[in-house]
Structures are given as structure tokens and as C-alpha cells.
Amino acid sequence: MTRFTLIGIFLGTLATGSALAQEDLMDYDHTLKFARYLVNTRQYDFAAQEYERLNFLWPDDTTVVLELVRAYRLGSDCDQFPRSFRLLSEKDRLYGSGPMAREYLRFCLTCRIDHPLYFDVASRMTEQENALYSLGYYWTQRQYDSLFACNQRQSGIISASYPELFSLTNDFENQRYKKPALALAMSAIVPGSGKAYCKRWGDAAISFLFVTSGA
């Protein structure tokens, strides 16, 4: 084999490798674009499948991790929370990245998950966000006494930053204390309707939570 033949083989190998690398990059870009299209059209299950493929090929890509977890959450796929938590918390991502922390907190709220690190993560956010996510926790966990206490304790921050949520929580507190027997009476007539009464307030609050937090 001549020297020129060896040089030709070497150059051909380089060209092939470069073409494959470019093809991989295009595959990444196209798949990511398609996954985002699926999210934008609310096809969250299909979007998650595309993100899972990207995550398998590029496990250290934090953009893919964040958007994969978001697709799970937007699709209300609560069974994926353990995997999502693992992905978000790898390499201290949960404490070193605001977007990762917010996605974790929103996932907990969406699926009403009482996770042991929730308040620790929330406390590392801004003062306004900490107040918002603390209030959100009590709403989703239906811990109403703690909810009212939090709303009053943080009234300055919440009323200034999230006035609709502050007013909704106040209104719910006033209704509950003005008509303490209402839920019980409703349940006596139609079993479960008292819980439904409280749930409607909670659903409205959670809607406000996600609107105000930009979720």
C-alpha cells in the first residue's frame, strides 16, 4: 500500500467522521425542534418520548433534562416524578439552577406531592417566589390553617407581588369562617360535595399559581 493510498484512506475517514458528526448534530436539532412543536401543540406524551431519546443520547444536556421534566409535568404524568427528581437533582442541578428548582417545585404542586425537600428548595428562591411556593404548597396539600397563617404572615409580599392570589386566599378564609358548617352541610346532603366546594377554591388558586409563576 503506497503512501498516497494511506493518505487517501486517512482523509476519507476524517471526511466520514465529520459527516457523521454533522448528521448527529442535525438529528439533535431536528428532534429538539420537533419535541418543542409537540409541547406547543399540547401533545405532551409524544413530546416526552422525543425528549427521552435525546436524554439517552445526550444525558448531560441540561436543556433536554429541563424540557423533558416539563413535558412530564404538563402532561400530568405524576408517575414520572421519581425519575424527574433524579434528573433534576443530579450534579447539584436542583440547588445550582433556578429553572431546575422551579420545575421541581411546579411538579410537586401539579401532582400534589408532599416531598421532603420542597421547603428547602423553595427557601433558596427569591423572597417573592418563596412566599408564592409556600402558599402553593398549603393550597395543594389542603392545609388551610397553615395557608391562612402564611397568607397573613407574608401579606406584604404576596399582596404586592400576587394580588389576585392574596385576595382569593383571603376570600376563601372569610367564606370558611363565616360559614364554618357549609361544607359539612353540603356533604350531609350530597356525600363529597363539601370537599368539592373546597376543591373548587383550590383549583382556582392553583390556576393563579401557575399563571403568576409563568409555568
Please give a quick description of this structure.
With 215 residues, the chain is an all-alpha fold. It folds into 2 domains: 109 residues, Serine Threonine Protein Phosphatase 5, Tetratricopeptide repeat, CATH 1.25.40; 74 residues, no CATH class. The protein is 80% helix and 0% strand.
Structure description:
This protein has 13 helices and no strands. It folds into two domains: 17-125, Alpha Horseshoe (Serine Threonine Protein Phosphatase 5, Tetratricopeptide repeat), CATH 1.25.40; 142-215, no CATH class. The chain is mainly alpha-helical and 215 residues long. Helix 3 runs parallel beside helix 6, helix 6 runs parallel beside helix 8 and helix 9 (144-153) packs across helix 11. The termini are far apart. Mean pLDDT is 82; it is low at 6-11, 13-22 and 181-197.
Helix coverage percent of residues? Answer: over 70%
Order of helices and strands: HHHHHHHHHHHHH
Q: Tell me the number of helical segments per DSSP (H or I, 4 or more residues long).
A: 13
User: Which regions contain 5 or more consecutive residues with pLDDT less than 50?
Assistant: 6-11, 13-22, 181-197
Tell me how many strands there are: 0
CATH fold-level name of the largest domain: Serine Threonine Protein Phosphatase 5, Tetratricopeptide repeat
- The radius of gyration over CA amounts to 24 Å
The level-1 CATH class of the largest domain: Mainly Alpha
Helix-strand layout with pairing:
Elements lengths: L2 H38 L3 H14 L4 H13 L6 H9 L3 H4 L1 H13 L7 H5 L4 H14 L3 H10 L1 H7 L1 H16 L3 H8 L3 H20 L3
Helix pairs in contact: 1-2, 2-3, 3-4, 3-6, 4-6, 6-8, 8-9, 8-13, 9-11, 10-11, 11-13, 12-13
